[in-house]
Amino acid sequence: MQTINLKTLASALGLSVSTVSKALQDSHEISPETKQRVWQLARELDYVPNPHASSLRRKRSKIIAVVIPEVADSFFTLAMKGIEVVAQQKGYHTLIYLTYESLTKEQTILHDFQSGRVDGLIISLSGQTTHIDHVTALERKGIPVVLFDRIFEGTTLPLITTNDLESGYLATQHLIRQQCRRIAFLSVSDSLSITRQRQQGYLNALTDSHLPSEPDLMLTLPAHAADQEAIMTQLLTGPKAPDGIVASVEKTAILTYQLCEKLHLSIPEQLKVISFSNLETAPLLNPSLSTITQPAFDMGEAAARTLFGLIERKSLRTMLPLQCIPSVLIPRRSTQLLAG
């Protein structure tokens, strides 16, 4: 079967390839009569434009990259949906890359982008990332970059985030109001800005309620599952076990639930739990999980719109402020104050 392309149409009509191309794009440079001839033949021959070839001529790949630590976390699943909505509206494809919390993998992925295979990047940093030289190097190559959720403080890159400091405060204050007095804070990385912000909110709430901050109750769990379980078991069964937990990521809340079941500890009678989480099944857990629910979809959508503003040169990077979209506290049975 013959491939129908611009050259085929041009040859059949006795026109130049550029004239046919402009006619198909409804250019004002082409007369209505010529446009009609081109469109009619294109329909008859079932001509389908090649967007890849067109993008090459414009020196654009029509592809954006999204680099995230994982997809198991419900936050990133929802954020990707927000990004995809905007990308599809713009006629772009989205490539998703996972760092698995590795700085080395993150650096390797971004280095590959320097060839220009993508038109822009949206990234949420890995748990090991303590500098962003590899990110700014990409921007210096002319590839727009937007950071979201796990951002880097002090950079001039566009940032999309939520009110982590305030949310850490609200989560801890909620437990205090439910009569918790020994509250633990669980995280998986102490290098992330979101962890520092959430933990500072936790500490501020303890201070305002005249409760001591105890280093033994602020845990950064290791990557290995067996080590996590051992540390958490020691925390929950020790002589100074907490009566409340702020889980800075949902995987630590799920681990807490699993260990409470294993150790025959009752939630919320013996331990109250609140987590930063977008888990759709949070209301269905036994007991239902109280959450700080982040605006994941909105953050993904905002990150994508910011990126395309840069790609299309509709916005100047230096004029893009940090965008902060508030989270919401949703109390459920895991922090319920029981009578008696």
From TrEMBL:
Signal peptide bounds:
none
Q: Which residues form the HTH lacI-type domain?
A: 4-58
The GO molecular function terms of this record are: DNA-binding transcription factor activity; transcription cis-regulatory region binding
What domain of life does the UniProt record list for this protein's source?
Bacteria
Which SUPFAM superfamilies does the record match to this protein?
lambda repressor-like DNA-binding domains (SSF47413), Periplasmic binding protein-like I (SSF53822)
Keyword terms of this UniProt record: DNA-binding, Transcription, Transcription regulation
What protein is this chain from?
LacI family transcriptional regulator
